[in-house]
Specification:
Blueprint lengths: L2 H20 L19 E9 L9 E2 L4 E2 L5 H14 L2 E6 L8 H9 L9 H9 L3 E3 L9 H7 L21 E2 L3 E3 L10 E11 L5 E13 L4 H4 L1 H4 L3 E3 L2 H14 L4 E6 L16 H4 L7 E4 L5 E2 L10 E2 L4 E2 L2 E6 L5 E12 L2 E4 L5 E6 L1 E4 L2 E4 L11 H11 L2 E5 L3 E2 L9 H21 L8 E5 L14 E2 L2 E4 H7 L5 E8 H11 L14 E2 L12 E3 L2 E5 L9 E6 L2 E2 L5 E7 H4 L13 E8 H10 L3 E2 L9 E3 L8 E6 L3 H6 L5 E6 L4 E6 L4
Parallel strand pairs: 1-4, 4-5, 5-6, 9-11, 11-12, 12-16, 22-35, 24-33, 28-37, 30-36
Antiparallel strand pairs: 1-17, 2-3, 7-10, 8-9, 13-16, 14-15, 15-16, 17-18, 17-19, 20-21, 22-26, 23-25, 24-29, 27-33, 27-34, 30-31, 31-32, 37-39, 38-39
Helix pairs in contact: 3-10, 11-15, 12-15
């Protein structure tokens, strides 16, 4: 097919898709007002949700420079099209963390910022699909309020934010719990009402066209005030999601909507509620008047087994305290779908809960040992063709050379090559900058904490892998995945040990007497919360001991660390502000909040070490305490990487079986 014909085909597909956004599958008959509906009339409405796309528009791995069919909004669009074909009435919403998280996103925000008249690429493709509404996630704030105001087309009466009417998405964005300190008013509209004609059916089977009015209200995680303190402090304040819902629900109910949908960029947590709760969905579901709950932020699926243990949560049909709910994965890997069965009850629509359920539709399924992914919608790639090429060219800018293979394949098992460069760059930055503002801390022992962000959560290709040879900006982005800023906190020896104990929750407790296989990794503890410290510190992790008692032989420069010994620890703004619930980290002990992004700090450090060698990096700082086990201790990793483990000194690791899907099962001998 010639390029011209291909573009015409894509345009035709795009027009068809846009048409599906506003037209039901079967055109209903003469419009009726709700008051004319006979009791018992019914309507099925499909609520479709994307969340945590993180600007992964195309099925492409920017770090490995190759297509990746297991992710990408262009494939989610195929599922959206199929849902619109299947259901007569559909509404499509986005639950946030939309504009940040890929090389393309950083290019448009940092390297070649879009102008006021340019629409952000992710919003351009979402407009082509036809969304009905969306909310704002925590990562939307990463690039600062001026950028967020510009790209969302939302003038904000906030200090330091120009009042401009710029190009933004063509659908409403709602956010109820972030307000301007200048005005006390929300920086986005807190809620709005969407009106649409839908197909309904009378008890005798007649099809009618009736209006449906849906109110949407949005919420972001309150801890953004710590995570993006440098962007938000003094400019906005945040309220708890329950408090914000209770404030605005009377206004919404006064407009008599047929349904109220809460768009929460957050997940489910049944621990005692606080206004700063990160994942307040369980409590939000208990606010009277909310009919549907859309969830996100946790990068997982609901309904799904992760939530099976929660009180009043149906992890099979998708209900939270009786409210239909869904969380549609991340990176465009899934589409959340709620089949909402409505029945007309005298003067209002009611949700027929026995006929209602939620599902998460994946773009890839695995059957008979093979992974099959839906095709990409051909209309999407042409819309971002130029910016995609520019972003790839940008990220391939050379910045140096390395003799060291830096990977995260075995970061959980002690390979620190991918973290050593990050820790070295962080230590170097703070050694130079901290004395300028805190000369009294110039001689306090300095440590650096970093976690491997890519440890296989997203599949067998989701690992950092920077091979010997030319280093580029892509290498820096691979080594440091998130656009965090650098922060340093003052603590003591007890605080350092508590920090490391929390990190060690990454592992299951191992019983040396068990003859059967025992899994090394705790699947409920995220890899990005396994901080590993360097800078003269050495320690062991004893997996035979319970949580909170695992860090042993903790020394600094060869001497035991004492509880009151002062330390400054370099980390990122997320961790320093309380992210991950680490003991003692809540933002109050920050002694340096750098204006620079950690990734940029790392890139500059690599440029200053144009021929990176092992001698430029801090050595491995920890190991597992020797433990002889009766049976194997196992973990899953990318397949056929045993040689990398051995080359980096982990000769106690061996591959024992190949899963056939790019992953393999390994055993680690803890006695060595």
């Amino acid at each position: 097919m010639s390029p011209g014909i291909a573009r015409l085909a894509a345009l035709a597909s795009l027009l068809l898709l846009a048409g599906c956004a506003s037209q039901p599958a079967s055109p209903p008959s003469q419009p009726f007002e709700p008051g004319q509906l006979p009791a018992g009339s019914r309507a099925d409405v499909a609520i479709l949700e994307t969340t945590d796309i993180h600007s992964n528009i195309l099925s492409y791995d920017y770090y490995k420079q190759k297509p990746d069919p297991t992710l990408g909004f262009e494939r989610t669009v195929t599922l959206i099209r199929r849902a619109r074909d299947q259901f007569t009435n559909t509404f499509l919403f986005d639950d946030g963390d939309t504009i940040q998280g890929s090389v393309l996103a950083d290019y448009q925000a940092l390297a070649q910022p879009v102008t006021c008249k340019q629409e952000l690429a992710i919003y351009r493709v979402m407009d082509a699909v036809g969304y009905d509404g969306g909310t704002i996630g925590n990562h939307e704030f990463n690039y600062g309020l001026p950028f967020l105001s510009q790209v969302t087309g939302t003038p904000m009466d906030v200090d330091g934010v120009p009042v401009e009417h710029c190009a933004g998405p063509h659908y409403p964005l709602v956010l109820a719990n972030v307000v301007s300190t200048r005005t006390g008013k929300p920086i986005f509209r807190p809620w709005t009402i969407i009106k649409r004609q839908i197909a309904a059916y009378t008890p005798d089977g007649s099809q009618l066209s009736v209006p449906l009015r849906i109110a949407i209200i949005g919420f972001t995680p309150p801890p953004i005030m710590q995570w993006d303190q440098r962007h938000l402090e003094g400019k906005v304040t945040v309220t708890g999601v329950v408090e914000a819902a209770r404030k605005y629900m009377p206004q919404i109910e006064a407009q008599h909507p047929d349904l109220v949908i809460a768009l929460l960029h957050g997940g489910l947590d049944t621990s005692p509620y606080t206004p700063m709760m990160e994942n307040g969905g369980w409590y939000l579901a208990g606010v009277p008047g909310i009919d549907v709950l859309l969830l996100g932020h946790m990068h997982t699926d609901f309904p799904g087994p992760r939530f099976a243990h929660l009180k009043d949560v149906d992890d099979h049909l998708g209900f939270v305290r009786g409210v239909p709910a869904v969380m549609g994965g991340f990176f465009g890997k899934d589409l959340g779908v709620i089949r909402l069965a409505l029945i007309w009850n005298k003067d209002h629509w009611a949700v027929d809960k026995p006929q209602t359920h939620s599902r998460v539709w994946p773009i890839c399924t695995r059957t008979a040992g093979k992974t099959r992914c839906v095709p990409a919608d051909p209309a999407i790639a042409p819309l971002v063709e130029k910016v995609q090429k520019d972003a790839i060219a940008y990220v391939n800018t050379p910045i140096g050379h390395t003799r060291v293979h830096m990977s995260s394949y075995f970061a959980d098992e002690g390979d620190m090559t991918a973290l050593a460069a990050v820790n070295a760059a962080q230590l170097d930055y703070v050694r130079r900058e901290l004395p300028k503002t805190h000369p009294e801390l110039a001689h306090v022992p300095l440590l650096s904490a970093a976690a491997a962000f890519r440890t296989g959560f997203g599949g067998p290709d989701d690992y950092t892998d920077v091979r010997p040879g030319v280093l580029t900006l892509r290498s820096a982005a691979d080594l440091y995945f998130y656009p965090n800023t650098l922060a340093a906190v003052k603590t003591d020896g007890a605080g350092v040990k508590a920090w490391l104990e929390q990190s060690a929750r990454r592992f299951n407790r191992i019983d040396p007497s068990i003859h059967g296989a025992q899994p090394l990794i705790n699947p409920h503890y995220a890899g990005f919360n396994f901080d590993q410290m360097q800078g003269g510190l050495h320690y062991e992790i004893d997996l035979s001991k319970p949580v909170g008692q695992r860090i042993v032989s903790l020394t600094y420069r060869g001497k035991p660390v004492t509880p009151g010994q002062p330390f400054v620890v370099v980390t990122n703004n997320y961790r320093a502000g309380g992210g991950g619930d680490f003991p003692g980290l809540d933002g109050h002990d920050i002694v340096l909040a750098a204006p620079d992004g950690t990734r940029e700090i790392l890139a500059r450090w690599l440029q200053r070490h144009p021929d990176l060698d092992a001698k430029d990096l801090p050595g491995r700082s920890w190991r597992f305490a020797p433990l002889k086990t009766a049976g194997p201790v196992i973990f899953t990793d990318a397949s056929d990487k045993q040689a990398i483990a051995h080359a980096d000194g982990l000769r106690n690791i061996r591959q024992i079986s190949n899963n056939g899907d790019g992953t393999a099962v390994y055993a680690i001998d803890l006695s060595h």
